[in-house]
Amino acid sequence: MQQKATRLTETRISGEVAYDGKFLKVERDLIQLPDGKQTHREFIRHPGAVVIIPLLDDGRVLMERQFRYPNAQEFIEFPAGKIDPGEDWLECAKRELKEETGYTATDWQFVCTIHNAIAYSDEHLELYLARGLTAGEAKLDEGEFLECFTVTVPELLDLVRTGQITDVKTIIGSFWLEKIVAGQWEPPR
C-alpha cells in the first residue's frame, strides 16, 4: 500500500542490505527528514504473517503453547505463520491452521491487519476468524514443537489480564474476539 506524501514523510536517498538471512533481512537506509536533514534508519524486512483466531462450535478457543527462543520462554498464542512469497493470505491461514493444529475450518472471516513493530519492522499480520472447525492431524514443520489446548473467551481474557499472554497478536485478536462474540463488532466484509 503506497502512502501519500505528507509534511511528516521521510524520503529514502539510498540504502543497503545490512544482513540477509534465510527469514529476515535488515536494511540500512540514508533518508531525508521533513526538515531537510539526513539520517539513517535501520529496519527489518519481514514477509508478513497470518494469525488465526480458531473459535470452536462450543464457544471455546483453540490456543497454542510454544517455546520462543528470542525470549527464552513458552508463550500462549493463536496459531500463526509466515506468508510465503506470492501466497494468498487466506490460503496461508488455512495451511497454517492445518499444519499447526490439525484443524480445518469451513467459515473464514478476515478481521484486520496489524503492524506489531512499526518503529523497526515492516511486518504486517493478517488476522482471520476461523469457525466451523473440524479436528484432524497436525503436520508440524520440522523443528516445530507446540501444544494445543482450549479455553473459553473469559478464560482467554483473564490470561491477557493477568499477564500470562503477552504476545501482541494474541492480545489484539483476543479483544477483537470478545467484541465479535458479544455482537458489538463485525469484521469488515
UniProtKB/TrEMBL annotation:
Pfam families: NUDIX. One of its GO terms (biological process) is ribose phosphate metabolic process. Residues 44-173 form the Nudix hydrolase domain. The keyword Hydrolase applies. SUPFAM superfamilies: Nudix. It catalyses: GDP-alpha-D-mannose + H2O = alpha-D-mannose 1-phosphate + GMP + 2 H(+). It comes from the Bacteria. The keyword Membrane does not apply. GO terms for cellular component: cytosol. One of its GO terms (molecular function) is hydrolase activity. InterPro entries: NUDIX_hydrolase-like_dom_sf, NUDIX_hydrolase_CS, NUDIX_hydrolase_dom. Its cofactor is Mg(2+). Keywords: Hydrolase. Belongs to the Nudix hydrolase family. NudK subfamily. This is GDP-mannose pyrophosphatase. It comes from Zemynaea arenosa. The lineage of its organism: Bacteria, Pseudomonadati, Pseudomonadota, Betaproteobacteria, Burkholderiales.
